[in-house]
Amino acid sequence: MSNHCFFFFFISSFCFASFASGATLAQDEVEALEDIGKTVGKEWDFSVDPCSGERNWSTKDKNNVEKNNVTCNCDGPNGTVCHVTRIILKEQNLPGTLPRNLFKLPYLQELDLSRNYLNGTIPKEWGSTKLVKISLLANRLTGEIPTEITNISTLLDLNLEANQFSGILPLELGNLTQILRLLLNSNNFTGELPISLARLSKLLDFRIGDNQFSGKIPDFIHQNMKNISILRIEGSGLSGPIPSEISQLQNLTDLRISDLRGSETSTFPPLDKMMNLQYLILRNCNIIGDLPEFLGTMTNLKDNLDLSFNKLTGPIPDAYETIAKKAKNVYLSGNLLNGTVPSWIEHAKSIDISYNNLNITSQESATCNQVDRNLFANSITNGSGEDACLEGYTCSQLSYNLHINCGGKEVLVNKSTYDDDGVADGGDVRFLWNRNRNWAVSTTGNFMNNDDREGKHLVSNKSVLSIENVDLYMTARASPISLTYYGFCLGNGNYTIFLHFAEIAFTDDQTFSSLGRRVFDIYIQEELVKEGFNIAEEAGGNGKAIRKTFRAVVSSNTLKIRLNWAGKGTTALPYKSVYGPLISAITVNSDNPPPMPSSISVGVVVGIVVAVVVVIILMFGILWWKCCLRKKSSLEIELRGLELRTGVFTLRQIKVATNNFAEENKIGEGGFGPVYKGCLSDGTLIAVKLLSSKSRQGNREFLNEIGMISALQHPHLVKLYGCCVEGDQLLLVYEYMENNSLARALFGPEEHQIRLDWATRYKICIGIARGLAYLHEESRLKVVHRDIKTTNVLLDKDLNPKISDFGLAKLDEEENTHISTRIAGTYGYMAPEYAMHGYLTDKADVYSFGIVVLEIIIGRNNIIHRQNEESFSILDWAHMLKTKGDLMELVDRRLGSDWKKEEVLVAIKVALLCTQVTTTLRPTMSSVVSILEGKSVVNEVVTEASEVLDEKRMEAMRKYYSELSIEVTWTASSTSASDLYPTHLDSSFLDKRNYL
């Protein structure tokens, strides 16, 4: 059965008799409607009978579409009593909540509250209704799906798309065995898809994209949902690979899978029997192998074919000519395709083959600038390796800045002229030069909005903006999938990049048009610098400006800024469309002044050169005499040996930024020495670490920190802006973290403590875990930090955690796990196998993380307390309470009752699991992230403590920690970070535990 037949059957199955003369709605149902109107915020006119269709009981829009309708069935035995069978309140901007008393309308079959401003949760009382269709599309509803709703055995259509629902899907969803349409996309659901969904064998339409699910694409989809026609799994959180058995779903007309997690690859699934396919999207799914020939025989594939951002190889088959001429869009970009570009490419409707290894003839390169064809970043056939779309392109003059008013006309802002970028809207595929040919823009993707392309790539604001430099935010350029700006002819060197954003496509009011959610990733020079960027969220609302600052190194005179949609964000708000990346303006400035042009005569130049040489010789002599040159050059040679992705600052710049290292700007002492707050000339706040180069150990850690962190970029790692080496000054320049360290926030001096509620503490645990998972498993360099502790976790203005201080970090070398040099780290946080035997793996960081989690829960730092020759730590205290079955006694009393027992218990179990003495029993950090996010279940921890529970010792611990908890209020602690009050762990303490 096709989708069209399904919906025709669905609608026609209702009996909506016309209003019979003299028939009226039953009084109890009138009262129910009055309550429903008050609850949702709808002002119905009860001066006429609700079933009459008069006044505001039934209205249509200009397109004759019902958006406000109460339908009744008046075909009762005597024809005098009517019953409500359908309520449609679409696009009404209703501000209320969902009504609980639907059960008072016993004949109600359809409820459509799409595109309103409703909040709250789904009432459990709905479980006793006989609804056939429920649509809550595009509201701001929250909470979990109540299990009671699965009692509606008559339910055929459930649409929860584009809300803020969360939690794991209830197993009871499998009870809806008659359901034909289940839309769960664009929410915050987590966990694995329950196996009970295998019972939904009648499903025709199943959508789960834009969520936070975990696990792989389940087998029950292809094993049990044989009738399915529409399957959408875009940005769902699920991992690859795509199961080859998905080819068994031969009734599919619309298959969309994108942005699968994980690195596991798969070959192209054998879809040759899916002859009904009209849409096929398998984007960023780690597919390898050649492009399959059979796609060229799929005559119904007339809408979209998107295989971009995979690892597909081989030539483009000749059979694809048919698809290219019939399909609205074909996307093959970002693969490893080779061979010659087919001659039929110029007859394609819309095709993107950019970023491949294809060979392009000189004649074909002329198509580079045409609408609906993108051939950029492929090679010309002369073997030079030159980009065919840049053939013959030369730079007449290098520039050191770039200003673009994205999607708009030329404007003058702050004495800088921003180039016109509104000349052409561009098609779904386009590579477009600006008129001066010093930059270009490339767009990819289809808005999936009934092919209505006009004006979609160029967005104009239609409301009043109260924004500084408003001219930069009146327009924007957008793209459904990928939006890339290229800056050409830039002088090589370090640059500061400002990306200007304002969400002008969504309204800033209390209507459904304000509920759209745009999420995309930002890449600069092909490096991910911002993942999951949400303009409105970061700016504090729609119509508000936000400027993001990045730094990059330009080489080969080219800068590349790419914004990429990864399947996240709403596609139904305010209306059906793909709301991919959007940008208002771009500002690019060199960090160093451009070279001055010269027209001086040869004689003068020679004289200047001679004078300069003499001065240099004198300076070298003086420096050598003072022994400064040898010290500095040694460090600079090592610095040059590092492939840094950071900027270089002058000492003068940093002195100006910190007011000459003024005492009032000193914000602490780090592993190197003092740390100062500063402000660069562009307004960027920085933190400057300062170290004297006379320390050989400091030099080593200085170089290590630069080398490590310059290669690591993650939202939960502190960003390194650059460094400075001048004379005996060694400095690191970091992003400024407004809330200092986690240690100071939890148990620092009273004037510096921050009230961290449980939700914030749990968020911090997850953030640290994500950062460590990146270091251990996801980054190109596999890194062991070696010094994870609360003083090395910094908090930004939103209390998001970021791991800092990489001076002791070490590459994780599996074949060399024994440290023969000094043991580095902080006692109290060091894993026993590392502290005692120098055995180092990433599990040492896992142990330290466990200690940090305990500190976050207890609100105390891990001081080893000694009393009458007995010593104990918070880890001992946790094990003692676990043995006693009283783990909740660990919780910081300052939290009062404002904490979730389930989350606290998970966090404690994770901490105990991470601090197991046996390294193999400790989890990986990716497993920890999964557990904390509720995607996996934490196993029960079996304590490894060998000592028999000593009641006397237990009482001593309880007395010690109870006294601390009573004495300490949110502002009364005098204990500072462990860097200032170091802890000590002796071998006798470690010997009391089973070491393996």
Write a structural description:
44% of the residues are buried. Residues 4-21, 451-455, 623-635, 637-645, 693-697, 813-822, 945-949 and 964-996 have low confidence and may be disordered. The chain has 996 residues and is α/β, with parallel strands linked by helices. It has 4 domains: 3-238, Ribonuclease Inhibitor (Leucine-rich repeat, LRR (right-handed beta-alpha superhelix)), CATH 3.80.10.10; 394-590, Jelly Rolls; 602-735, Phosphorylase Kinase, domain 1 (2-Layer Sandwich); 742-991, Orthogonal Bundle (Transferase(Phosphotransferase), domain 1), CATH 1.10.510.10. α11 (758-778) runs antiparallel to α16 (925-932) and α13 (843-858) runs antiparallel to α15 (901-914). Helix content is 20%, strand content 23%. The strands form 11 sheets. The protein has a 16-stranded mixed sheet that branches.
CATH superfamily of the largest domain: Transferase(Phosphotransferase) domain 1
Count of discrete structural domains: 4
State the share of residues found in helices, binned by percent. Answer: 10-25%
Cα-to-Cα separation, first versus last residue: 62 Å
Q: Label the CATH architecture of the largest domain.
A: Orthogonal Bundle
- Hey, roughly how much beta strand do the residues contain? 15-25%
**Main sheet: strands, sense, barrel:** 16 strands, mixed
Low-confidence stretches: 4-21, 451-455, 623-635, 637-645, 693-697, 813-822, 945-949, 964-996
What is the approximate shape? globular
InterPro entries: Kinase-like_dom_sf (IPR011009), Leu-rich_rpt (IPR001611), LRR_dom_sf (IPR032675), LRR_Rcpt-Like_S/T_Kinase (IPR051824), Malectin_dom (IPR021720), Prot_kinase_dom (IPR000719), Ser/Thr_kinase_AS (IPR008271)
Protein name: non-specific serine/threonine protein kinase
Keywords: ATP-binding, Glycoprotein, Kinase, Leucine-rich repeat, Membrane, Nucleotide-binding, Phosphoprotein, Receptor, Repeat, Serine/threonine-protein kinase, Signal, Transferase, Transmembrane, Transmembrane helix
Pfam family, one: Malectin
